[in-house]
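Recall that a protein's primary structure is simply its ordered list of amino acids. Everything else, from secondary elements to tertiary packing, is in principle encoded there. The following example makes that idea concrete.
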Amino acid sequence: MAKAVCPLLGYFFTYTVTKLFIKRGESVTVKWEEPPIVGPGVWESRLLPLIDRPGEWAVVYETDKTATAHTIRNQLLAGRYGLPSGRWEFKARKTGAGGKIYARYLEPKRKCHGA
């Protein structure tokens, strides 16, 4: 069993690795089931209020490390978190020893015409 810390939520979680590799000829058990329904994610909840005020900047996250703010900003830009639909802009700024992430909602995603 191993432990890790989630930088976004700030708490420890544990996980167990049962088997890394399967040898040729070894049987594999498959369990069929539907995935659970998941509610809005942390970032979706933080960003939804910004849709009502397009074009305005808001602080959506504060951290005690500047590097963490820049890392999270890059992950938001790369689409690694479940974001509400639309076009978004994100910036990270140093604040003393820590950092803040700013976000603003620009507009709904444009649909392609003609095809």
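The first helix runs from residue 42 to 47. The chain has a mean pLDDT of 81.
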